[in-house]
Give the backbone structure.
Amino acid sequence: MKCFECNLELEALKERRYRYVESGLTNIYLTGVTVLRCAKCNTEIPELPNIKSLHLCIALAIIEGSPSLSGEEIRFLRKNLGMKSKDLAAKLGYEPEVFSKYENNRLTIGDHADRSIRMWYLIQKSKEVENYKSLIQAVDNFDKIGEGTIWRKDIEIPIASCFANRASQIQSSSTEIH
Ligand SMILES: [Zn+2]
């Protein structure tokens, strides 16, 4: 494969840590990824074998690990469900505009809406997630979510184990990014 800009052959770098900003999320790092890099312009292209499984994996990491859903996390979960924000709001019994306000950080999500989105996601994906019942239980048991917790963790997704055994292999690092 060649660089679109430079027309140079890309070099393959194995076992890299790749910040997956293409997901729309700023705190997701994929580990063990082969990255194709242009030596001239430093463009990097990750080799991602199965985007659908990867995005499910990321969604579950958010549901299990995010202290409070951020705007970008809400957008990621909603898009992954293939829903418009007003349709998600209608399903969960909220005003039509409220989810786009969350997503654009014009409104801070509260505990109830936060929990509802996580639960709704898990129910919709129940057939694809082996341990969905225990995840629902986990969300139900969270002491306190939402209510404007302001710091976020980086989430590391080991890409190989993601496809083998989705959520159980995910580790969160303790690095705070804001
Ligand atoms: Zn290049």
